[in-house]
Write a structure and sequence with these properties.
The protein has 9 helices and 11 strands. The chain is α+β, with helices and mostly antiparallel strands and about 270 residues long.
């Protein structure tokens, strides 16, 4: 793997000749992510949608959105990954991020600007100092975002979308400061708790409580980085006691709430 990495900012190029599903974990984080798919045979789950990837597809994944790769065969898998925090994006672009589609198909032509950007970043990662590579990465991320704003790239549609689950995920996002569990959600959407548990397990591979806790922890991390004390962040996220919050925070992010660290994701 070739990469550039610094505090929530990541560029990585990987090419697995014999990919194994167990090495690609389900995850979510507080950074935006772009996955530029070069080759392979796979679907990609983004929230409640499943996309079948084609060469030169660009996935645009918003912060705190659960996502993961689903291999369909052992065909070689090549991709570029970029993670970035919103604060590296100028305000005239960041205001548009909510309107970007989740999937774009980038034409494979000799003059494809986005294709050139990703392969140019690969050269920067291999030849520049880390400081200069980071500067190049920030500039090129914003250039990609501008191309997505103005270019008429074809947008892909999910091959599968779970509408009820989509509404449940939106409800969770809107109620991270309230007590949440399967029973609360079941009563809201007139389904059984067992249906919710089965659906989350089938779609995400984790239980609904684990999903809710991870979403709350990511929201708390945002609060803490904005200056809110960890004890107050735990209270805002409806934790009954700090010890439970602290344990879940460390379990999910692998560092203390008081640590100014970032967890690095590459797939």
């Amino acid at each position: 793997m070739t990469k550039i990495s610094d505090k929530g900012l990541l560029f990585a190029h990987s090419n697995d000749a014999n990919p194994v599903q167990s090495t690609f974990r389900q995850h979510m984080h507080n950074e935006y992510e772009m996955l530029y798919f070069i080759a392979g045979d796979a679907d990609y789950v983004v929230g409640s949608s499943v996309y079948h990837l084609r060469p030169n597809d660009l996935l645009f994944i918003r912060p705190a959105t659960y996502h993961y790769l689903k291999l369909l065969s052992a065909a070689p898998y090549e991709r570029f990954i970029v993670n970035f925090p919103e604060d590296i994006v100028p305000k005239n672009i960041s205001g548009l991020l909510g309107g970007y589609r989740e999937l774009y198909n980038i034409p494979k032509t000799p003059d494809s600007p986005i294709d050139h950007i990703f392969y140019g970043l690969l050269q920067a990662a291999e030849n520049f100092s880390q400081k200069d590579a980071r500067l190049a990465l920030i500039q090129e991320i914003n250039l990609v975002l501008l191309y997505l704003k103005y270019a008429s790239y074809q947008g892909g549609q999910p091959q599968k979308r779970h509408d009820v689950l989509d509404n449940i995920l939106k409800f969770i996002d809107e109620n991270l400061t309230s007590p949440l569990n399967a029973q609360v959600i079941a009563e809201k959407f007139y389904v059984s708790s067992s249906w919710i548990s089965h659906t989350f397990g089938d779609f995400f591979g984790i239980g609904v409580s684990q999903y809710i806790n991870r979403k709350k922890i990511l929201y708390a991390q945002q609060l803490i980085k904005s200056g809110v004390p960890p004890t107050k962040a735990a209270e805002i996220c409806a934790y009954n006691n700090y010890s439970t919050f602290y344990r879940q925070y460390r379990q999910f992010l692998a560092f203390d709430p008081t640590d100014d660290k970032w967890e690095e994701y590459s797939d």
